[in-house]
Amino acid sequence: MLVIGEKINTSAKDVEKAVEKRDTSFIQDLARRQVISGADALDVNVGTRIHTEVEDMKWAVKVIQKVVEVPLCIDSPNPLALEAGLTQHKDKAIINSVTAEKKRVEEILPLLKRFRSKVIALTMDEAGIPEDMRRRYTVAERLVDLLTREGIALDDIYIDPLVRPISTDSGCGWTVLEAMRKIRGSFKGIHLICGLSNISFGLPRRELLNRVFLSIAMPMGLDAVILDPLDKGMIPVIRAGEALLGKDEYCTKYLSSFREGKL
Ligand code: THG
């Protein structure tokens, strides 16, 4: 399971302030703590800062890479901010994200090829996020087709069936799980990712819902996730899930996490 830490996101007030003040040590500390806690990659999203996003992204990617070795997931609706982050990034980055919208595909494909990045592909198109599982699957199929025809390797594609809050639509948790199962069953070799914390938005005890949702999503084929690695209960769920699903030979990772005191 690829764990992408979600904390460097200016939707959180303290992160927004740190970016604005160019508080290098705050951002670097947040990066370090997520990696120490078990993040394999870090999402970087400064999207609330519409007017300065390009400069902010460039700065954030630069200072984060000084203290951690993991790849960064450059998260922005703005292709110029993506380009700024990718230009600054050392090795293979992850672009977050492309959709099946024609305009978005035209903006992202050149960046993907130029920087040889990995890419997260959201199952939405001009009509928005499909309500039902089948249509979300259909959009995923279109995305896989389109990206592979452009020469993008399956291993570089992360399909995101888009988790939405169950507080606004009580059926949407199950819908996205079924979409995961169907996508996993149809495309061997691609990756399946989601933004976990979205599921619990607007409800109390969010970490409870996040952890249980993750444990149900893993057997549906989820193999990458954007989450809060600083939630101490989260990494244990992942290590236990991998061991139980036969994704951890000889339970090696489970046992070493235990020895490191991380369970
Ligand atoms: N898919 C993809 N990318 C994504 C998402 C997705 N990027 C953004 C988002 N969704 C994932 N990142 C977050 C980051 C923070 C929170 C949720 C998702 C969050 N934060 C708390 C809050 O807002 O209440 C706490 C913030 C704070 O620390 O104050 O919920 O789905 N591809």
**Second rung of CATH, namely the architecture of the largest domain:** Alpha-Beta Barrel
Number of helices: 10
The set of bound ligands, ions and cofactors reads: (6S)-5,6,7,8-tetrahydrofolate
Shape type: globular
Succession of helices and strands: EHHEHEHEHEHEHEHEHH
Low-pLDDT residue spans = none
Distance between the termini: 16 Å
- Reading off the top of the CATH hierarchy, the class of the largest domain is best stated as Alpha Beta
- The rounded Rg comes to 18 Å
Structural class: alpha/beta
Q: CATH-wise, what's the superfamily of the largest domain? A: Dihydropteroate synthase-like
The total number of structural domains is: 3
How many runs of DSSP E, i.e. beta strands?
8
Oligomer: single chain
Q: What value does the average pLDDT take? A: 97
Instruction: Tell me what portion of residues adopts beta-strand conformation.
Output: 15-25%
> In this structure, how is the largest beta sheet organized?
8 strands, parallel, barrel
Instruction: Report the helical percentage.
Output: 40-55%
CATH topology annotation of the largest domain: TIM Barrel
- The side-by-side strand order for the widest beta sheet comes to 1-2-3-4-5-6-7-8
